[in-house]
Structure formats: structure tokens, C-alpha cells
Amino acid sequence: MKTQVVIVGAGPAGLLLSEILHRHGVESIVLERSSREHVLARIRAGVLESTTVDVLRENGLSTRMDVEGHPHDGMRIAWAGRDSFLVDTYQTLGRRFMVYGQTAIQEDLFAAADRRGQAVLTEVSDVLLHQHDGAPGAKPYVTYVRDGQAGRIDCDFIAGCDGFHGVSRRSIPEAVRREYEKVYPFGWLGVMARVKPLPDITYVNNPRGFALASYRNQQLSRFYIQVPLDHKVEDWPDDRFWPELKARFPAEMAAAITETDTIEKSIAPLRSFVSEPMRYGALFLCGDAAHIVPPTGAKGLNLAVSDVYYLSKALARWYRSGDAVWLDGYSATALRRVWSSVRTSWYLTTLLHRFPDTSEFDQKAQEYELDYLKHSARAQAALAEQYAGLALEKAD
Ligand code: APR
Ligand code: PHB
């Protein structure tokens, strides 16, 4: 087979890239290791920056989001024994963010791919990248196995959208790659429950540990609590989870949370990770393949979307005019936004969690940083800007 761009991975990054490329008349084939059902069953965060909403709208992907999504003006921070405060993105920036689950976006992307007859080859294994180093005369191609049959796709470019555990990043020689990593000494237990959500997405700092109340719709709440790294889902039956969750929220908020049978529970470790550069020859990395953020601030999907925005513009320009200037600038441009969100999610994680090895001094500094945020409109405006998301650098 032959195409212009082979996209490895059918997560949000891969499918969105194929959609935008198609709109620019660039053809692609998507290769996905898992089944479609498996990809659609993954539960991830659900907060879309206003720039992400704009990119989805501009590309005809907002019909359902505009009906079912919940525009929101701010996020709330609460901490033990004090009054909570709202970081108001609408008041400070005139921008709202959108609560709309990543699972729903993934469904919308598959539906759009089906409508245009996009080639998405699922359940492929042994994906390998070849001649992608950009050497003169190199002709990139990708090999894979599907239904026991070996396949090969010749192409101009390869987009590595295959997540943290994918093959793409590892196809960049170690001598070229520089990796930056921070692993946090706790995980998040995430729970879905059919209960009325709190009015705002609320992040809580408490001596018992961090907690978060978010939601998917007016009947479906999503809660998280910080747990030690060695805990398993089995350690957290409902009759342990609910009292612990409520103990971390201020009393009046806890009273508004109804206990019910939970629908889904999972534990995820927290990590910050960036791999540079995001381009090697004909290979371009997007999304989790190049970087991971802890979920505090819900930046993961938003970064995948900004990477795809920059790469799709750059590829479209190259196919339109043979001008490689944006392709050459891709890594530096994408990384500016990546590091900004990596910093924000590290900051929020550090601000809101209890670290097992925190000294009394560090604890006091954390509490007084929260105090400052609560009382300073300027500090809140800076956080609001980062939470709602920085503007994309306009490529045209
Ligand atoms: N070959 C083909 N596909 C692969 C391979 C491989 N070797 N390895 C991984 N994949 C697929 C995975 O099965 C997955 O469907 O690549 C896809 C990557 O999707 P995501 O992990 O969702 O990553 P991305 O599209 O970058 O989305 C980023 O989604 O992962 C969340 O929290 C993350 O919100 C962030 C956003
Ligand atoms: C979610 O709704 O799942 C969510 C919201 C905010 C976060 C992380 C996750 O920071």
C-alpha cells in the first residue's frame, strides 16, 4: 500500500490528525494496535481548553460536543478547614472551558472517520518504522502484521501518535533523544458514579490527601482521590471509598455528595515526561508518544490537540507549496506549549497533593501559596490563564 502520511495510533491524536489532514486534501492510513472497542472503552479526563474546543469546531467535530458538553466558567480550589475559592476563567479572560469526556471525543472521531471512509487498520501488531531518518534518498515505510498477514505501507511522512508505550518514540535513536521525567510518589484512584455532580470542578488539598470532583453530565460524576502507589482497586471497596472521599471535602460539599454504587474504578500513577525533539527525519511525534502530564489540570488531551494542530498545518503547507518551514519548526513550536502545560500540571500537582516526605516547612509554604492564590486576583488570573489554556501560535 501507499499513502502520504502513515499515522501510528488511533487515540485522539491519531484520529484527529487524520481528520484535519483529510480536510486539507492529504491522505493517511491509521494503524492501531488495539480493537476499536478497546480504544472506545478507555476512560480519561474530560476538560477541554477553549483552544481545543476551537480546533474541534473548526474541523466539524463539535456537533455533539455543543449539545452534550458543559461550558464552565471556572474551577474551584478547596483546602482543609478554609473557604474554597473559584478560579474564574470567564471573568478574568472572557474564556470558558468545556466539560466533555475524552471517551465521547473518541467516539466522535471514529464516527467522523467512518463517514469519510478513512482507512483505520485496527488490531495490527509488530508495527516497525523504516527509512524514517531523513537521510538523502530515504523512502520511509511502515511494516506491520494483521490477521497473520505481513503488510507494508510506503509514505512520505510518519506521525507517531501511539501513546507513551508505542513504538514511534523508541524509533528515534537514543543518542538523538533527550528525556525529562518526574515520577510522583502517589497515584489517583478514579471512580465514576451516577450521582449529581458538585456545581464546580473542585480540587481539594487535605491532610488526608488530594481529592477532585468532576463530572461527565448532570447525572454522572467523576471523583478522584490520591492513594499510595502500592494500593490496588481491590483495596478500595465502595464502603471505604465514599467515607474517605467525603472526609477530604469541606463539610458542606461532602454533604452534597450522594453515595451510590460506583460504576468504574481504576488507579493510575502520576508522571511528568517529555521526550525531545518531537521530530526525527520523516517521523513526527504527537500527544502521549512524546509527553505525559499528571492529570491535575487535565492537560493531556489538550496537548495532543495542539500538537496535531501544528503538525497538520505544517504538513498541509508542505503538500500545498513544498515549503518545509513549519515542518522544520514543528518540534520547537509544539514543545513551547508542551513545556508550558507540563509546568502547569506539575505546579498544580505540587500545590494540591500531600507528599509523603514533605517537611513542615514545605507544608507551610504550600498552605501559604494557597492562601496567596485565594486572596490575590492577579495570582488567580495567572492560574486561570494556564487552566483555560494558552492561545495557539497562529500558523497562518
Ligand atoms: N502500534 C499501533 N498502535 C499503537 C502502538 C503500536 N505499537 N502502541 C500504541 N498504540 C495505540 C494505542 O493502542 C492507543 O490507541 O496508540 C494509541 C495512542 O492513544 P492514546 O494513548 O490515547 O494517546 P494520544 O492519542 O496521544 O492521546 C493523548 O489521551 O492517552 C490519553 O491521557 C492521554 O489525554 C491524553 C490523550
Ligand atoms: C475528569 O473529569 O476526569 C478530570 C477533570 C479535571 C482533571 C482531571 C480529570 O484535572
Q: What do you see in this structure?
A:
It is a single chain. By secondary structure, this protein is of the alpha+beta class. A hairpin with a 2-residue loop joins strand 10 (141-146) and strand 11 (149-154). Strands 6-5-14-15-16-13-17-20 form an eight-stranded mixed beta sheet. Strands 8-2-1-12-19-18 form a six-stranded mixed beta sheet. Helix 1 packs parallel to helix 6 and helix 1 (12-23) runs parallel beside helix 9. Helices cover 37% and strands 28% of the residues. It has helices spanning 12-23, 36-41, 50-58, 63-68, 89-93, 102-115, 238-248, 251-255, 300-321, 325-352, 360-375, 377-388, and strands at 5-8, 28-31, 47-48, 70-72, 74-79, 85-88, 97-99, 119-121, 125-130, 141-146, 149-154, 157-160, 178-193, 201-205, 211-217, 220-227, 262-276, 279-280, 283-285, 291-292. It has twelve helices and 20 strands. The model has no long low-confidence stretch (mean pLDDT 96). The structure holds adenosine-5-diphosphoribose (APR) and P-hydroxybenzoic acid.
